[in-house]
Design brief:
Blueprint lengths: L2 H20 L6 E3 L2 E3 L5 H5 L6 H9 L3 H4 L5 E6 L1 H5 L5 H5 L5 H9 L2 E3 L4 H10 L4 E4 L5 E7 L3 E5 L5 E11 L2 E6 L7
Parallel strand pairs: 3-9
Antiparallel strand pairs: 1-2, 3-4, 5-6, 6-7, 7-8, 8-9
Helix pairs in contact: 3-7
Length: about 190
């Protein structure tokens, strides 16, 4: 086989491997030890993830269950439990108090972007935006998606803090979830 054909075949194999690592091979993905099903809503799946129990408790406390069960589509950047644990001591407990429901709702809806933004769509938006994609959140704030290396997408909040997407493209009947390692905070 000639060397240019061999190099081209190698490049295609690498591209295919990168594509498969960025997106699930099927509509069923394991998150927090449980299968996530594309036929279920964001909330119906999230309640089964052991990695998102704090997020689910917060969604319930904020009264957002019905909203996230609606048709959508929504893109949710879902912080894992360790992301909430990394917040200053007492922050989560304070936000979960009934008198702070409005503030909690603003923080949570800051993680929600209208539309279904899969990994491929986000990556293409970043490339078309000369290295960043500005995402308008349901709370009215802005998140900025950028690439960290050739494949990893990071999300930056209004305060400059960044979250890595740990699990991409958890497809839902009403959108998509990307599991992230930090809680994003609006100004």
């Amino acid at each position: 086989m000639n060397s240019s054909i061999s190099r081209a075949a190698g490049a295609l194999a690498i591209a295919a491997a990168l594509t498969l690592s960025a997106a699930p091979a099927s509509s069923e993905v394991i998150v927090g030890g449980s299968a996530m099903f594309a036929s279920k809503t964001i909330v119906q799946n999230a309640v089964n993830s052991a990695d998102h129990t704090t997020l689910v408790a917060a969604v319930k406390a904020a009264g957002l269950v019905d909203t996230l069960n609606q048709k959508g589509p929504f893109t949710v950047f879902a912080p894992v439990n360790t992301a909430f644990d990394a917040l200053p001591k007492g922050t989560v407990k304070t936000l979960l108090k009934p008198q702070n429901k409005g503030q909690l709702s603003k923080v949570l809806t800051y993680h929600v972007v209208p539309g279904k933004l899969t990994y491929v769509k986000l990556r293409n938006m970043v490339k078309k935006g000369n290295g960043e994609a500005r995402l308008k959140t349901a709370s009215g704030g802005t998140l900025v998606a950028t690439l960290n290396g050739p494949q990893n997408i990071v999300i930056r909040d209004d305060n400059g803090a960044t979250a890595n997407i740990e699990i991409y493209d958890v497809l839902q009947s009403n959108g998509v979830i990307h599991s992230i390692d930090k809680v994003l905070l609006p100004k």
